[in-house]
Write a structure and sequence with these properties.
Elements lengths: L1 H17 L9 H13 L9 H18 L12 H13 L9 H4 L1 H4 L28 H20 L10 H7 L4 H20 L24 H12 L7 H21 L7 H27 L2 H4 L3
Helix pairs in contact: 2-3, 2-9, 2-12, 3-4, 3-7, 7-9, 9-10, 9-12, 11-12
């Protein structure tokens, strides 16, 4: 009986040890829900038309491809299906497809051909340290990943005319390039994704290679709140002097000050600090969901499609 009990305990320990730690939302759908929450004020947002649903999902899939390495269902399955679905969706919407192949945005193919060292945490050092982070180990790879989201956001929301299919890609890229407002909007989407990762990071290890909420000792990473504060002024340039925009910026400043008072310049390096950091990430998501849906209603690039 005693031997049987020991065997059961060992089996349970073995199974528990083989389950990969959840460093982020376990499914892409949860990141998609965060994005719906921030853009529309509801994680259960139901779209009024198929066109709206496809436009949102194309942007959400592009964000997932740009930022993450693994699929929504497995920590070891790559996101090739997401890439192929996105290409098909762009074609169905009559929009230019991505000009890069999946191999160009796959860490295993483009950076680490043998796949060694690329896992649910380490892949983040190539993509999760900030939209404008200056010290990525492979800057060109991150630029290629960025272009996935920029391309899709540009063609689904910001471009009113689709160029002829015979036009060379280099001509499209030059004369139909993403605007400064488009890039700022993509930075917002990027930050929302990272906030979802912060919200489930219950240990310091899960915050490794993840842009912090505020800047700590590493000045290469400005911090999510600083990045948001800068880019939101570009997204809502025509509303910068409105009371709602001012209220949002005041709320951001107040939250940043509160986090600074709690953490100072020190890192989030204890379980207690991680718990506080999770709560602050949720608060930041709530803050954005409180203000952004109303502000976006007044932006033609967004209101014309949703």
């Amino acid at each position: 009986m005693k031997r049987r009990l020991i065997a059961v305990v060992l089996l349970v320990a073995l199974i528990a040890g083989s389950v990969p730690a959840a460093y982020a939302h376990p499914r892409q759908a949860e990141h998609d829900e965060d994005l719906k929450y921030v853009l529309f004020g509801s994680r259960d947002k139901h779209f009024d038309s198929e066109e709206e649903r496809r436009a949102f999902q194309a942007i959400a899939d592009a964000a997932s491809l740009a930022i993450d390495q693994f699929s929504s269902n497995s920590s070891s399955q790559l996101k090739k299906d997401t890439y192929e679905d996105l290409q098909a969706s762009l074609q169905d919407m009559g929009l230019p497809q991505l000009s890069v192949g999946f191999g160009s945005i796959d860490l295993n193919a483009a950076v680490s051909a043998d796949g060694k060292g690329i896992n649910a945490n380490s892949h983040r050092k190539y993509t999760h340290q900030g939209w404008n982070y200056r010290d990525y180990p492979n800057p060109k790879f991150w630029e290629t990943r960025q272009q996935v989201l920029l391309h899709v956001a540009n063609w689904t929301l910001f471009q009113n005319r689709v160029p002829p299919s015979w036009l060379p890609a280099w001509v499209r890229n030059r004369f139909y390039a993403p605007s400064e407002q488009c890039e700022a909007f993509c930075t917002l989407i990027y930050c929302v994704h990272l906030l979802g990762d912060h919200a489930v990071a219950d240990s310091p290890e899960k915050l490794k290679y993840l842009e912090p909420l505020i800047a700590h000792s590493n000045m290469s990473a400005p911090g999510i709140i600083t990045e948001l504060s800068e880019q939101l002024q570009v997204v809502f340039v025509s509303q910068r002097y409105s009371w709602r925009f001012s209220a949002m910026m005041e709320d951001l400043s107040a939250l940043e000050f509160e986090i600074e008072q709690e953490f100072g310049v020190g890192r989030v390096d204890t379980a207690e600090k991680c718990s506080l950091n999770q709560k602050h990430a949720e608060r930041l998501l709530n803050l954005l969901a409180k203000h952004l849906p109303e502000l976006l209603k007044n932006e033609p690039f967004f209101s014309a499609h949703f």
